């Protein structure tokens, strides 16, 4: 479980964060849709991405999304636990 200011992130956002931490490379929205979220959530990927960007958990450069190194390490540690 990933906590942000004492509150857990929604499941779909947690899955996106875990996948991004494992993948470790910048990815496009299409890759996130294909690999991270259930079909139920595929339409909400832009909202999911925007939510993570607003929380400063995900960064965007040239249309690709990635975790900052410190966030990646935090998520990796949570994944291992």
Query: How far do the termini sit from each other?
Result: 9 Å
Strand content: 5-15%
Order of helices and strands: EEHHHEEH
Q: What radius of gyration results from the CA coordinates? A: 12 Å
Order of strands in the sheet with the most strands? 1-2
Helix content: 40-55%
Low-confidence spans? none
Report the principal-axis shape.
Answer: globular
Largest sheet: 2 strands, antiparallel
How many DSSP E strands? Answer: 4
Mean of the pLDDT scores? 83
Q: Give me the number of helical elements.
A: 4
Class per helix and strand makeup = alpha+beta
Could you characterize what this model shows?
The chain is of the alpha+beta class and 81 residues long. 52% of the residues lie in helices and 12% in strands. Strand 1 (3-4) and strand 2 form a beta hairpin. Helix 1 (11-23) crosses helix 4. It is globular, with a radius of gyration of 12 Å. The mean pLDDT is 83.
Give structural attributes.
81 residues, alpha+beta, two-stranded antiparallel sheet, two-stranded antiparallel ribbon, globular
């Amino acid at each position: 479980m990933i906590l942000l200011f004492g509150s857990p992130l929604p499941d779909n956002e947690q899955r996106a964060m875990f996948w991004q931490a494992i993948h470790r490379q910048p990815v496009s929205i299409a890759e996130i849709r294909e690999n991270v979220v259930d079909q139920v959530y595929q339409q909400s990927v832009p909202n999911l991405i925007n939510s993570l960007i607003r929380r400063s958990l995900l960064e965007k450069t040239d249309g690709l999304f990635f975790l900052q190194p410190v966030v990646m390490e935090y998520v990796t540690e949570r994944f291992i636990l």
